[in-house]
């Protein structure tokens, strides 16, 4: 891998970056590609909703377990070795999933895919950080943002179109040849030199990390279906939290930790982490709640539901590189404040949905929200990473990726739980109100129609209440964004500085 010493001197390795970006794009695309297909898989493989959800929850769990270890892997192994391992695992999982006829086989294939995908994103981000100087990093990270946000956003649209024309297995058959091509290109063209690093993986740290992050992810992901009072939810969250605390204390005691928590002594990185966590929670509200509103309440097809999100995804894709260039010129605070203001306003308007909100209005509102989001995520993250000394880049990228997975799961669970509990409360109130206004004994047909109307109206109000919470979450991020300052790379306390005599000798040699 590129050493930190030659960050500014050498031309960035655009070939390596291009290969890594394609690999990262298909792995991120795959994360949301399957969501729309879950009902078809349930029917075809004869499984329940709680079972089929493991295809998404399991994927997230493996990411949560694997990503913390990527800081160690990036330091220990070469870019070529790591990338080829990651894309090979992803390709094997994709092929296996495409030909699976039983749910356990499909689930194992999905977990193999996730183990490759977990390595890909932190690896790409680390190569970008070590390839560009801070003053040019915004533009480069803008392209990274294109993958990070555009790929998952376009997934539902592509999935909806494919499901209307093909079997759900085509989602995997579509990705398989692309994965094989990327693997072959990487094998023949990807070359990088890396000195052997004497670093060993602390197995206890890996165990505590896996139980900690895995427990939290599983607990919060299960809360939406099982409820917060389920032992399966609160026990795993408690065990996860205790394991995570033990993991943090162990990392602070180790000379060479698996994940370096001392990076939080750099204020801009700590602030960027806090904002990213809050934004990840808020971002999932529209991605999660809108399809429920559109498909369940309005009866719009999965294809049209996916298409509704496409303009926003395209707008975000266009804006990511532009936002990156603007970040290099004006810094992150102005962009984050403008973007978060737009996010707060659009989230507020989403909390005013009705039973007949127009399709065009939904597209416009969602696109505006994505436009706001495009000005926040990458500038905030890049500004925080810019303050870290170069040797902490692997830890910074791994920490950001892990926190996004965990906060995304927590945000999803929180908003679904709020929607569910508020829907029940509204249903009780609406039913009581409807019964009061009845002047005569209703027929079974009238009762059935009334029950359906109450259920629809209650769910609508539950979704609106969830969006109100989302407004509050986005407001917290907006307040935090006011404290952003343009970060300068901090000095590494462990770096050996050259003496005046060494500097003179170096100048003489260069001249």
Automatic annotation (TrEMBL):
Which superkingdom heads the taxonomic lineage of this protein's source? Bacteria
A Pfam family for this UniProt protein?
MFS_1
Q: Where is the Major facilitator superfamily (MFS) profile domain?
A: 16-489
* Keywords of this entry: Cell membrane, Membrane, Transmembrane, Transmembrane helix, Transport
Segments passing through the bilayer: 12-34, 54-74, 81-105, 111-129, 141-162, 168-189, 201-220, 232-249, 269-294, 306-327, 334-351, 363-381, 466-484
Write down the membrane topology: Multi-pass membrane protein
List where in the cell it is found: Cell membrane
The entry's family comment says: Belongs to the major facilitator superfamily. EmrB family.
Q: Which PANTHER family match?
A: MAJOR FACILITATOR SUPERFAMILY MULTIDRUG TRANSPORTER MFSC
Q: What is the designated name of this protein?
A: Multidrug resistance protein EmrY
Q: Which organism is it from?
A: Neobacillus rhizosphaerae
**Which gene is transcribed and translated to give this protein?**
emrY_3
């Amino acid at each position: 891998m590129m050493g930190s010493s030659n960050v500014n001197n050498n031309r960035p390795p655009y070939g390596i970056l291009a290969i890594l970006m394609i690999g990262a794009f298909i792995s991120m695309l795959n994360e949301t590609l399957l969501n729309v297909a879950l009902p078809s898989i349930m029917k075809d493989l004869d499984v329940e909703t709680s079972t089929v959800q493991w295809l998404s929850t399991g994927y997230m769990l493996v990411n949560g377990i694997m990503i913390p270890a990527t800081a160690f892997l990036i330091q220990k192994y070469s870019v070529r070795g790591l990338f080829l391992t990651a894309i090979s695992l992803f390709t094997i999982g994709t092929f296996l999933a495409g030909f699976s006829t039983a749910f356990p086989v499909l689930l194992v294939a999905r977990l193999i895919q996730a183990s490759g995908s977990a390595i890909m994103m932190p690896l790409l981000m680390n190569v970008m950080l070590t390839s560009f100087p801070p003053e040019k990093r915004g533009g480069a990270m803008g392209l990274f943002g294109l993958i990070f946000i555009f790929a998952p956003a376009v997934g539902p649209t592509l999935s909806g179109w494919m499901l209307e024309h093909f079997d759900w297995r085509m989602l995997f058959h579509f990705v398989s040849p692309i994965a094989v091509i990327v693997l072959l290109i990487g094998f023949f063209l990807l070359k990088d030199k890396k000195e052997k690093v004497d670093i060993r993986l602390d197995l206890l740290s890996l165990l505590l990390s896996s139980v900690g992050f895995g427990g939290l992810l599983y607990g919060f992901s299960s809360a939406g279906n099982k409820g917060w009072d389920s032992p399966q939810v609160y026990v795993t969250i408690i065990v996860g939290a205790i394991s995570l605390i033990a993991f943090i204390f162990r990392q602070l005691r180790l000379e060479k930790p698996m994940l370096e928590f001392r990076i939080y002594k750099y204020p801009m990185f700590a602030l960027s982490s806090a904002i990213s966590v809050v934004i990840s929670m808020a971002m999932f509200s529209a991605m999660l709640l809108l399809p429920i509103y559109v498909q369940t309440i309005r009866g719009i097809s999965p294809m049209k539901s996916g298409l509704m999100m496409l303009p926003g995804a395209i707008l975000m894709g266009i804006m990511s590189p532009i936002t990156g260039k603007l970040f290099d010129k004006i810094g992150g605070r102005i962009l984050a404040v403008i973007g978060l203001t737009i996010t707060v306003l659009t989230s507020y308007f989403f909390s005013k949905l009705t039973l007949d909100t127009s399709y065009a209005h939904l597209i416009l509102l969602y696109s505006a929200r994505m436009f706001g989001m495009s000005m926040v995520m990458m500038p905030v993250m890049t500004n925080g990473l810019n303050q870290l000394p170069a040797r902490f880049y692997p830890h910074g990228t791994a920490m950001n990726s892990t926190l996004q997975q965990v906060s995304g799961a927590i945000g999803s669970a929180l908003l679904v739980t709020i929607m569910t509990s508020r829907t029940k409360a509204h249903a009780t109130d609406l039913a009581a109100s409807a019964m009061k206004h009845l002047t005569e004994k209703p027929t079974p047909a009238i009762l059935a129609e009334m029950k359906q109307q109450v259920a629809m109206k209650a769910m609508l109000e539950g979704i609106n209440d969830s969006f109100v919470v989302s407004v509050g979450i986005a407001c917290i991020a907006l307040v935090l964004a006011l404290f952003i300052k343009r970060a300068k790379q901090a000095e590494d306390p462990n770096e050996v500085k050259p003496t005046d005599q060494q500097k003179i000798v170096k100048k003489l040699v260069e001249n």
